[in-house]
């Protein structure tokens, strides 16, 4: 690594150092750097525990446990100046230990981390935010053999790199990162470089692994959940037909956990959400224009008291400032995967969606007329062209 000296138009080599010579320690320094800057490893990671020792019949501790954007567990092992001989065996043991963790256990582990190190917070909500989903229910965490390993050290021994390459050839997702400190006057610079597999090969290998995990999931847990959802929506639509709820008369069943029906204003569907622990009825604002969605939500929010008085119930108002969409919803706790509860869920959804529509529709018509005169810089939609495209909204996530 070199420093550019502008006044002489030369480059000056930086002095390569050892962490031990600089007084840095594995746990106090390298580990903490990665806790607060996990994307230094080349991707977005959510650290869910450090010094994790939740293993039966052993006092061993893994350095860092994380989730990646696909919900896979990532075991991160840090070494100082030398990888040592046993780092691969050590990381494989830890990965085997965490491979059996269930979603509820992962959430509990992360909640403990938040309480101990981050001053609190709701683990399930933070996981949803990280995975960019609305509900923890359909999320698949730690699926099958999807666990990953990251090894960090300033120097890797040949027996370590040879073993890592062999494991990669057998389908184990494992990466080696070389971390090198340099001194520059009074400053210390850190270079973190993925050396195994090379980044250009890594994308291909991770892609193959993700494809295998996706197929395994779809054939297992997801396949079962998809069938439950299809069966529930079929049951619900029959109940709606019997009760004369016409809003969803032209909507088909789906394997998704949500079902949309047009409101008459493009981009604002009435949405039903069916989950394992919760069901919801929502009015969504889903235009491609963030400004359009927020304007519409804000107009509804100004009438919050009037709307809730007419409904006779409180609603959840979610502007979602960090997202493009916004929503107004009401939820109820049900064990949705127990078919004995389906009559109660269907009764509740039928009652609520009719009330929501009756109260919200005049406001939609009013604000829909008002917004035509408002110009938004990020508007892509053309209201006239999209007026008859309500069915396309059923393909958008909620």
What does this structure look like?
It holds the Pfam family DUF4268. GO terms for molecular function: nucleic acid binding. With 398 residues, the chain is of the alpha+beta class. The protein has two domains: 13-219, Trna Endonuclease, Chain: A, domain 1; 224-395, Yope Regulator, Chain: A. Helices cover 40% and strands 21% of the residues. It has helices spanning 19-22, 26-36, 87-98, 103-117, 123-131, 158-169, 199-219, 221-243, 290-302, 304-311, 342-370, 383-386; strands spanning 2-5, 10-13, 15-16, 46-52, 62-67, 73-78, 148-153, 173-184, 187-196, 258-261, 270-274, 278-285, 316-318, 326-333. Strands 3, 4, 5, 6, 7, 8 and 9 form a seven-stranded mixed beta sheet that branches. The chain is elongated. Residues 381-398 have low confidence and may be disordered.
Characteristics of this structure?
Trna Endonuclease, Chain: A, domain 1, Yope Regulator, Chain: A, 7-stranded mixed β-sheet, disordered C terminus, 5-stranded antiparallel β-sheet, single chain, 14 strands, 398 residues, elongated, alpha+beta, 2 domains
What would you say about this model in short?
The protein is of the alpha+beta class and 398 residues long. The protein has helices at residues 19-22, 26-36, 87-98, 103-117, 123-131, 158-169, 199-219, 221-243, 290-302, 304-311, 342-370, 383-386, and strands at residues 2-5, 10-13, 15-16, 46-52, 62-67, 73-78, 148-153, 173-184, 187-196, 258-261, 270-274, 278-285, 316-318, 326-333.
């Amino acid at each position: 690594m070199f420093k550019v000296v502008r006044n002489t138009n030369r480059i000056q080599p930086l002095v390569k150092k050892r962490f031990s010579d600089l007084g840095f320690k594995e746990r106090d320094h390298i580990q903490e750097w990665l806790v607060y800057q996990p994307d230094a490893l080349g991707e977005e990671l959510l650290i869910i525990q450090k010094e994790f020792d939740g293993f039966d019949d052993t006092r061993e501790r893994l350095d860092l446990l994380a989730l990646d954007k696909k919900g896979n567990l990532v075991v991160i092992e840090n070494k100082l100046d030398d990888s040592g001989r046993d780092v691969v065996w050590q990381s494989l043991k830890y990965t085997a230990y965490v491979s059996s963790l269930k979603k509820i256990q992962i959430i509990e582990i992360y909640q403990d981390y938040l309480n101990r190190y981050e001053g609190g917070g709701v683990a399930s909500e933070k996981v949803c935010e990280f995975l960019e989903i609305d509900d923890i229910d359909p999320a698949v965490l730690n699926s099958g053999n999807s666990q990953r390993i990251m090894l960090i050290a300033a120097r890797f021994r040949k027996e370590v790199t040879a073993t890592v390459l062999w494991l990669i050839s057998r389908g184990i997702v494992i990466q080696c990162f070389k971390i090198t400190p340099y001194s520059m006057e009074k400053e210390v610079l850190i270079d973190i470089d993925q050396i195994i597999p090379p980044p250009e090969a890594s994308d291909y290998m991770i892609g193959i692994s993700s494809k295998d995990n996706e197929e395994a999931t779809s054939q297992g847990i997801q396949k079962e959940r998809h069938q439950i959802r299809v069966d529930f929506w079929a049951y619900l639509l029959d109940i709606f037909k019997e009760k004369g709820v016409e809003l969803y008369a032209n909507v088909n069943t789906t394997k998704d956990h949500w079902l949309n029906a047009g409101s008459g204003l493009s981009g604002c569907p009435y949405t039903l959400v069916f989950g394992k622990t919760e069901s919801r009825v929502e009015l969504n604002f889903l235009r491609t224009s963030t400004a359009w969605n927020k304007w519409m939500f804000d107009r509804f929010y100004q009438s919050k008291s009037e709307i809730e008085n007419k409904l006779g119930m409180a609603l959840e108002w979610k502007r979602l400032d960090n997202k493009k969409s916004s929503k107004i919803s009401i939820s109820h706790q049900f064990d949705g995967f127990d078919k004995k509860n389906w009559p109660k869920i269907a009764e509740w959804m039928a009652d609520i969606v009719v009330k929501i529509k009756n109260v919200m529709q005049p406001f939609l018509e009013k604000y829909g007329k008002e917004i035509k005169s408002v110009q938004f810089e990020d508007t892509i939609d053309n209201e006239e062209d999209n007026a008859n495209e309500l069915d396309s909204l059923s393909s958008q996530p909620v």
